[in-house]
Amino acid sequence: DAGVIQSPRHEVTEMGQEVTLRCKPISGHDYLFWYRQTMMRGLELLIYFNNNVPIDDSGMPEDRFSAKMPNASFSTLKIQPSEPRDSAVYFCASSLAARPQHFGDGTRLSIL
Amino acid sequence: TQLLEQSPQFLSIQEGENLTVYCNSSSVFSSLQWYRQEPGEGPVLLVTVVTGGEVKKLKRLTFQFGDARKDSSLHITAAQPGDTGLYLCAGESFGNEKLTFGTGTRLTIIP
Question: Which end of chain A, N or C, is more open, meaning fewer C-beta atoms within 10 Å of its C-beta?
């Protein structure tokens, strides 16, 4: 079975550009989570959805970040405008009934 | 804010040795999970402990949930190079689907 699929795997862009990260959860899963991982702060939850509805976005750092889940098989995390401090590895995870979470392999984002 | 502190932060030992990694918090959790993450990949769930005092074994790995549900430990017997990776504990709060991840322990097993 296919796991959580994230794209792109790597993204390098200049400060000020819009960045869109994509995630395809495991089919049938009803929860989707977006995380950010850095050496300094570890793995932080940004936002999560249940049945395509955002439940908690308290981890979203600021208004430059937005996330959508238009249907059960697709979600996006957008940063506009991007800043160098947004550089991190971004993970998407999905689960059935919230546990356990299955993680994708992440998108390594570098903002120059 | 719930915090999960892991210790040690880094650990490098010889193949065949035993080791213990700790995960501590001042908060109570409904369950605690342990993940292992390898470079370029996402975390992979190893085990979930739910009951205070619970002990679970996964081959050479032994996981324990503290009686007060605030802490956990991971013990590895006869470590092997394949055990190398970043170990993360994660606590689940009561009535909340969110996970709070620990600070991580980066383990290196030297052949």
Answer: N
